[in-house]
TrEMBL record:
Residues 41-107, 142-189 form the RNA polymerase sigma-70 region domain. It comes from Rhodopseudomonas telluris. Pfam families: Sigma70_r2 (PF04542), Sigma70_r4 (PF04545). This is Sigma-70 family RNA polymerase sigma factor. Keywords: DNA-binding, Sigma factor, Transcription, Transcription regulation. PANTHER family: BLR3042 PROTEIN, RNA POLYMERASE ECF-TYPE SIGMA FACTO. Belongs to the sigma-70 factor family. ECF subfamily.
Length: 203
């Protein structure tokens, strides 16, 4: 019984230690060849990277393959990370590059992302919560009508909660361009939503 308690306590301490380890610390350990740190980073970010790629490709199998490629690149190039952006931003930059490459290989200049994004608004009113399903359907339909560039900005800012600076790093454009695209994306989205009678989300 004592052995079981000791094992459980060791496991609990391990979990606490993992949570206290920052992404930057993990990446430094990965650069030194620490496989445990690689597993921890993967467990922490693989779902987010997968969903990001899936929203671009709409192909689960390819998205899974690309996630593996992203983290393989991380393992190989961890020493090149300079810490000028968050690790999560760096991961999404790699993921975006691979997803765009996959799109080019499929010879798609544009794809219709019917379900590109579901924006979860923690400040929803009770009325909006009651009609969440209908609103989500309308939102997906409206976002699908945005240009690829505007959809990408909406995805990164709202779904991945990235700052203007981080979006600029991921997409490879100036912050001023990010702000401009965000302005026009929100304006167009508001007009589309208003056309469907969704005034609160259009505000």
């Amino acid at each position: 019984m004592q052995n079981v308690i000791a094992i459980n306590e060791a496991g609990r301490q391990g979990i606490i230690a993992a949570r206290a380890t920052t992404d930057d610390m993990l990446l430094a350990s990965i650069a030194a060849g620490d496989r445990t740190a690689m597993h921890t980073l993967y467990a922490r970010h693989n779902v987010r990277v997968y969903r990001f790629i899936l929203r671009m490709l709409r192909d689960p199998a390819t998205a899974e393959d690309l996630v593996s490629q992203v983290f393989l690149d991380v393992w190989r190039t961890a020493r090149q990370f300079e810490g000028r952006a968050q690790v999560s931003t760096w991961l999404l930059s790699i993921a975006r590059f691979k997803a765009l490459t996959a799109l080019r290989q499929r010879q798609y200049e544009d794809i219709d992302q019917d379900d590109v994004l579901e924006i979860a608004d923690g400040a929803d009113t009770p009325e909006a919560a009651l009609d969440r399903s209908r609103t989500s359907d309308i939102l997906r339909a409206c976002i699908a009508k945005l240009s690829p560039a505007h959809r990408e900005i909406i995805n990164l800012v709202y779904y991945h909660e990235k700052s203007v600076e981080e979006v600029g790093r991921i997409v490879g454009i100036p912050q001023s361009t990010v702000k401009t695209r965000m302005f026009y994306a929100r304006k167009q989205l508001a007009e589309l939503l208003k056309g469907h009678g969704v005034e609160t989300m259009a505000a």
